[in-house]
Design a protein that fits this description.
By secondary structure, the chain is α+β, with helices and mostly antiparallel strands. It has a single domain, classed as Nucleoside Triphosphate Pyrophosphohydrolase (Alpha-Beta Complex). Helix content is 19%, strand content 38%. The protein contains 3 helices and 7 strands; from the N terminus they run E-E-E-E-H-E-E-E-H-H. Strands 1, 2, 3, 4, 5, 6 and 7 form a 7-stranded mixed beta sheet that branches.
């Protein structure tokens, strides 16, 4: 039986760009870029998971009403099925990012086009950008 994983991710948007994080080499999908994201823990809601992950990974503490649900995308990889619940926060000000050094080594703000052109993105990120309508 294929393992099912529920994951959340968020586009933190500011001034036409969004935040991506560079994963540490020892992490799952190490040395690749992705959104602030994480697995939904048993008994935790998708919204609570997303709020927790954003704070843990960026130092920014969002409020529930800032989170906008966009869509859920399902990927069927050979080793697992990933249900990716996608959110967006439209920021009024650029946040002061404080990375968790155990998880990420760098961050940057990118346009959708800049992100799509990158080769070292986490699995499914190019597809996510297409399905979200960020690129065609």
């Amino acid at each position: 039986m294929v393992k099912k994983v529920r994951t959340v991710g968020c586009f933190l948007e500011y001034n036409g760009k969004f935040l991506i994080l560079h994963r540490m080499p020892h992490e799952s999908q190490g040395d690749r870029w992705g959104l602030p994201a994480g697995k939904v823990d048993e008994g935790e809601s998708e919204i609570d998971t997303m709020l927790r992950e954003i704070e843990e990974e960026t130092g920014y503490k969002p409020k529930k009403d800032e989170l906008e649900f966009i869509k859920t995308i399902v990927w069927n990889f050979p080793e697992k099925t990933v249900e990716f619940i996608t959110f967006r926060i439209k920021l009024n000000n650029k946040i002061n990012v404080k990375l968790n050094p155990n998880e990420h080594q760098a961050y940057k703000w990118v346009t959708p086009k800049e992100c799509y052109a990158m080769k070292n993105l986490i699995h499914g990120f190019h597809d996510l950008l297409e399905k979200m309508g960020y690129v065609k």
